[in-house]
Structures are given as structure tokens and as C-alpha cells.
Amino acid sequence: xxxxxxxxxxxxxxxxxxxxxxxxxxxxxxxxxxxxxxxxxxxxxxxxxxxxxxxxxxxxxxxxxxxxxxxxxxxxxxxxxxxxxxxxxxxxxxxxxxxxxxxxxxxxxxxxxxxxxxxxxxxxxxxxxxxxxxxxxxxxxxxxxxxxxxxxxxxxxxxxxxxxxxxxxxxxxxxxxxxxxxxxxxxxxxxxxxxxxxxxxxxxxxxxxxxxxxxxxxxxxxxxxxxxxxxxxxxxxxxxxxxxxxxxxxxxxxxxxxxxxxxxxxxxxxxxxxxxxxxxxxxxxxxxxxxxxxxxxxxxxxxxxxxxxxxxxxxxxxxxxxxxxxxxxxxxxxxxxxxxxxxxxxxxxxxxxxxxxxxxxxxxxxxxxxxxxxxxxxxxxxxxxxxxxxxxxxxxxxxxxxxxxxxxxxxxxxxxxxxxxxxxxxxxxxxxxxxxxxxxxxxxxxxxxxxxxxxxxxxxxxxxxxxxxxxxxxxxxxxxxxxxxxxxxxxxxxxxxxxxxxxxxxxxxxxxxxxxxxxxxxxxxxxxxxxxxxxxxxxxxxxxxxxxxxxxxxxxxxxxxxxxxxxxxx
Length: 570
Prior knowledge:
Elements: E1 5-6, E2 11-12, H1 19-28, H2 33-38, E3 42-48, H3 54-66, E4 72-79, H4 85-91, H5 96-99, H6 102-109, E5 116-123, E6 126-132, H7 135-138, E7 148-151, H8 165-173, E8 180-183, H9 188-196, E9 199-205, E10 212-218, E11 233-237, H10 241-252, E12 256-261, E13 275-277, H11 287-305, E14 317-320, H12 324-336, E15 345-346, E16 350-353, E17 357-359, H13 361-368, E18 374-376, E19 382-384, E20 389-391, E21 394-396, E22 398-401, E23 418-430, E24 437-439, E25 443-448, E26 451-455, H14 469-482, E27 490-503, E28 509-512, E29 519-523, H15 529-544, H16 553-559, H17 562-569
Helix pairs in contact: 1-3, 10-13, 10-15, 11-15, 11-16
């Protein structure tokens, strides 16, 4: 069978003779990985050009054969034009016997083709950060020491944009004294720019009929030092979406976690019976949009996997063009966010996301926290000790504040510009429900036969959580104004009000609190918490377990509590 070929670059993804053998010869042997992986406890690979995923699968096979107990493998791989699952499966079919079961695991975890950084936990000890983006846009956001580079992608003469100064600057910036690189190409310009970036380059016989390939190692740099993992017991304050997500992710990584809540699981805004998962849209692609895109892809995969436990309904969401400004923003997102048409489309009336849907936040919290000890305590009772932190009568290595409205009054968070926002939703019966969720500033979400949820009010000036008839009527009016042909189609059956937590810049606050050791926060998720809480949990768990960064540096900075200190200084 001939090797798969890219029509865009008129080049093959791998050798016609034996792509798997070529991958081993060029990238595994070229970086001397068998001996290096066998001797390491933590190894980081970066690959330019994910393509079919063949190199990663081949690397994974080698890792499983030689790895030490408890070692971790991290991989960054960049791809501007991602293939579909079906295209990958077809391309790698000739190697299926050798790649089983790795190929199936990869396809099971393969993300939606939406622009952004996607963290795939392929195994307990193998993490792939798959970046769907132009490498010249993505690589400046990579600040992680790399042990070995797979310089793949299409030949420099056919894809010169990938072999740019940006690539070689990133290689130098992220190099250590032991960093290596290997590539199928021996093009003179590639060798020259590697040399200028501090790498000693050697040519050797290429694979098969190819005359030459290159190997390189960095000359200089410091030894890579990884801080030892020292966090074993963590307290998570708050048992809503943010807290349950953090506790679940840490538990999955074998960290002893205890949840603290002054009431019960999902007692606040996370206790709503239904919630939509949609990104927060912007006209341009930037640090915030990168976060929501990655969060959407992660949430979709998790919800699909755990659908029966969380009352998952995936029917798509139509975001209406309710005015000129909103149409401009939504059309801009469609044009600039780099989502495949399978996942984002425009219609005459709005922007449609086929994979969007709704879940029960309350059921999600219960599912995530099912194996986590829960203690009912006053969340204000947190104090520093000589050896760590005390919450109530219990001692911990680290504390994570992951509550909602109750975080506004917490002394440790007093420097953060956060506030409460009251929101009311209503439930009802609807004649001839819409075939998808409709978003218009508010939203209408069908979820069971003729049942719907509509919301939500946005009232930062109110703190009363009793439902109000005037809010119910306002919610109905907003829906009927947006969808006139559904006027008087809803019979209200209930209402619920709660307080969300939001930040001054309407973006979540996730990261380490300045001035304290092992004190963290995940809060201010606002109305998009179903998405942002999950990805926020992974970011914190990455930090506490000495993992690599799985989002662009600009996005991590935009999420950090320290961003408000920077504003104060200016």
C-alpha cells in the first residue's frame, strides 16, 4: 500500500517502503532513545508535525518496553492541519498489528479538531499535549525544557513556513545540556540554523533510499533539574464544580484529597439541574479563547465517556445573531478560531456548535466526588503551620480554594477582585421543543421529552437566593423576544436562584496564590464553569504533580492570580 500523501504539500507522511521502520531509524535511534528512556524518571519530547501520529505511537511502544517504574513520558506535538480519526486509522492500517493496542488508545483519546492545546492522558505514565495550531504561533508559547526533538513535518522545500526561525529559537530557549534532535532532512539551511542555535549537527546515512539524515545535540545549557514531587495530601475547599473537578483530577493521580464544604456537594450554583457547555466567544483568537477551546474539547471527551452518570444530552447549540455586534463577534470566532467545520458552522441565524450540549451539574459533582472524603467545615478555618496547612483539625501539604460565592469573603482571597453574581433559572414544559439548545444572551435547553431549562438572569447587585416571579417573567420574555414563533409555548414548573463567583475581568482565576507556599485557587468561573472548572483542575493537578504545562504561556498568565498584581503595579 502506498504511503498516505498530503495534497496540500504534495508530500508523503512517511516512507513508502516502511514508515514504522523509518520512524524507528530516524527519530528513536537518531535521538538514542532506547538507552535514554531506560535511564530516566521524566522525559519530554517535542515533535514538529503530528501527521498520522506514527512517531508518537512508535515512541510509546518503545517506552513501554524500556521504562523504569513510576517514570513519566511527556510529549508535545504540533499540527496545523489535523487529520480525522478515520484518516489516521486508514493511514496506519498497514501497521495495525505492530501498533495494537496503542493506535486504538490514541483514537479513543483523539480530540475534536479545534484550534488549541489538548492534553491527552494516553496512559498513567504517558501524556501527550497535542497542539492544533500553526507552529509559528504556538512555539513561542512553549517554555518547558525539552529532552529530544522529532523534527518531522513535510520537507523544507515544500513546507518552508514550518522550518522558520521561530522553530530554532524555541529549540534553543528550551534546551538543556542533554537536549538532542533528529530529522529525516539534511537540508543545508536546516543544518546551518541548528548550528546557529547552539546545536552540533552530524549527518548520517538516511533511511532506505534517502541519502542522508541529521542528528544534533545542544552544546551548552544547564542540566535539567526537576523539583521532587512532595505534595501527598491536599485539602480542596468547596464541593461545587471547581472543587469536585480538582479533587477528581488529583485523586486520579494518586494524591490523597479531602473535600471541605460548609453545606453539601453542589449546594450553590453548581446545584442547578441543567447547565449548558459552550465556550465564551470572542471575535479574535487570544489567550482567553485558547483556554475555552481546549476546555470545550476536554469537556466533550469526558462527558461522552461518562454520559450515563451525568445526564448528558448532546444536541448542539445555536448562538443567535441577536444584534450586529453579536453577529460580528460570532462570525469573527468562526473565521479566526480555527475549528474544523465538523465542530463550528455559521447559518443565516447564528453560530452552530454540533458537539455542544448540556449536563446536570449536580450529577457531575456527585460523580466526580464519589470516591473523595467530604468533611463539613467552616471554609474560613484555614491556617499555616510549620509543616504545611491546617484545615479544621486536619493537616495537609497544600490547600486549594475552589469554591464559588463563599470565596468572596475568604481572608486568603481578599486581594482578588472577585464578586458574586445572582442568577435565576426556570424549568418548564415546552410544546414542540426546539431540536437544539438556543443561546441569545439567555438560553433554552431541551433535555427530556418536553422538559426545558431557561436562564439565566445576571444580577451582581443582588445576594438573595430566593426565586422571584419578576425574574421568571423576564426569562420568559427574553426567550420569546429571541424566538417569537415559540411565544407562549412554555409552562413554568419551577425556579432556582444561586450566586456565582466572577472576577473583575470575567475570566477564571486559577493558579498559585502569591506570597504563600502550596496555596492555590480555582474560582471566578462565572457562567462557563462547566467548561472552565475541568480544565482548571487539570492545570492545578499538573502543577502539583510536576507535570509539564498543557496550555500556552500567555493563557497560563491570563489565568494566574498574579495578573491582578501586575495591573496594580502599572
